[in-house]
Amino acid sequence: PGAAEGIPAPTPRAPVAVPPDGPPATDPEIVALMADVRALRLLGDVERLVGFGTRHALSAADDPRRGVGAARAWIQADLERSAGAGGAQVQVELEPFTLDFANRRTTQHNVVATLPGIGTPKRLVYLTAHYDSRADDVADGAADAPGADDDASGVAVLLELVRVMSRRQWDATLRFVAFAAEEPGLKGSRFHAPAAAALGLPIVAVLNNDIVGGTAGAAGQADAARVRVFSADPDDGPSRRLARHAALVAARYGLLEVVVVPRADREGRGGDHQPFSDAGFAAIRLIAAEEDMGRQHNARDTVDRIDADYLGAVARLNLALAANLALAPPAPAGPPRIAVAADRPGAVRLAWDAVPDARVAGYWVAVREAGAPLYGRTIWSPAADGLVVDAVGAGARFAVAAADDHGHISLFGPEAVHP
Ligand SMILES: [Zn+2]
Q1: Domains defined along the chain, listed by start
Q2: 33-84 residue pLDDT tens
Q3: Which of 29, 114, 254, 378 has its C-alpha lying 20 to 30 A from 318's C-alpha?
Q4: What's the 8 CA to ligand 1 centre distance in angstroms?
């Protein structure tokens, strides 16, 4: 039924090579859920959010039609509709916090929807965006601030994925957070992320969507085939590893190509993923491949920026990433051990500690050649000891992920470097 609403099928690509003794590259159930993502429903959500005129943190909190209060109430109501419609239980809550900004003290509210997981040990996968917007003057709560791409687009992804993903139960808990007061300095996520760390919440991944609906750049160039993923250093840290994992899963499912940009965000800019990576969690920002900064943070960030099919493709990518991680076994805790294979020149022998989880059917070993941004080869190994990898260059890095029989692949553990 997706095609009737103008959703193109994912671009066919060469299938990812899987060994005859290994699990499939994709899970058919995740593919089926991706087909339920509706581009026009996403566009409709962006239009509704833009229709509040401004969602500035200091805009009206109590006007039923215009301002941040009306927008927040609509988001909450939409999530509660999904909670009632889906087969699984969804809890919708407001998370209040105090904002001191531009000589005013206000109460802001993150909107949090939680789909509790049924697996043990408990794990959480976060999908996030921000619902506030801003005008040229960051302190002006009265001016029009449509914020279509920044970031009604990201909120629309959350709302759509709550609809689609609440139709079944997941092993990990899925948490969807529409943050408030991002524009005054990441205030909603700076409130939430340290508290989550203090509680010891086992968050395995944070996927932050901010400016994900437009394909056009400032000079008229367009890119509807790729998405950028930003992640904080270090290069073998949890956030960068999540970015590489996103590229790998996107390729397996034949989705938008993930461009891993090895820095926390664009020059001089930031996003709600950063308080999470600062707190030690694996967190990435998804953002369109092209953007037009002349049409951000002003009255020109309008709905005509949005390419509904592209926004649908970003939503499907989020679904695949979150669903895979919500069903995959835990990641290996440590790097593999490396020994030079004396009997085979140019080869190394790898071993690692088995992941103690009954679902584990084997392991994917990724090789990242020196200087390469992404994992290159991935090699299937049913057992945790004695994999021999041939033709490795000096400085090559190796990492291991656990996999089950259904094509679900964990995050890769830390890398070991070829001596
Ligand atoms: Zn933004």
Answers
A1: 2-327 (3.40.630.10), 337-417 (2.60.40.10)
A2: 999 999 999 999 999 999 999 999 999 999 999 999 999 999 999 999 988 7
A3: 378
A4: 27
